[in-house]
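The authors assume throughout that readers already know how a fold can be written as discrete tokens. A single example would do more here than another paragraph of explanation. An entry of this sort, consisting of the sequence and the corresponding backbone structure tokens, reads as follows:
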Amino acid sequence: MTGAAKRPDGSWNLMSRNPRSSAAGLGQFLSGTWIGMAQQPGNWLNDVARQKGWLDSNGRVAPAARGSLLALRYDATASINSIADYARSNIATIRRAGIRPGNDPQVLANMAYLGHHLGPGDAIRYLKGGLSESRAAHLLKAQVGSAQALEKINRTGDAAVAHRDWLNGYIARKIRPDRFAGLQQASTS
């Protein structure tokens, strides 16, 4: 997930789609991740799916409801609530794996982003030392396209290094909770 595209006026495009994956909407959720969230009790999307009758008796998304559920990725409220639930779940999973982020907002935001972008399993591998060459190459191609990925891999001589360089740079530029510190203080005053 790199985030939804912006329109020329700077507003978010809720209809964003990644042409190289099934990622869609404001939260750029993959189809499988979105369905998994709907099937996971205790979060906003699961509550909606239950209320709408989209889950079968086993708590699985009914085949006939799949399209309606996936269309919710384009709804701002659904995306924002699911981003928050997924971040909380991913941080808890990463902590259970023995990684202790503390409570620094920047570190938590980075970890939440890594969990969303990579999925919790790959985020744990990334944080504990790195992804395999093949996995890193696959993810880099999905994010920047094959030609640009190959250029980055050739420049570093290592797909895992190229992916880490790109992802760390992206996080440093884009994941900036400090931009919202004043908003939080104003809302609690």
User: Anything to note?
Assistant: The chain has a mean pLDDT of 88.
